[in-house]
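Posting this for the archive.
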Amino acid sequence: MIVERKDNEILVRFSAGTKASKIQSILDYLRYEELTSKSEATEKDIEALTNKSKSDRWEKIRKEVGLD
């Protein structure tokens, strides 16, 4: 593995024998970190959003299935 700093970027190079699925998992995590690094959301905010989303989805499913 080779790590280089270039201007505003960090370049990481892996040998061809490295499993792409393992690299992708690491890249997914790093992308998540990049996207959430400036977030001001609290755990409480996230929990409220998750609960609202689940509730709305359940209502949609109930209507589609005819459970109302």
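The CA atoms of residues 15 and 32 lie 24 Å apart. Residues 1-37 form one domain.
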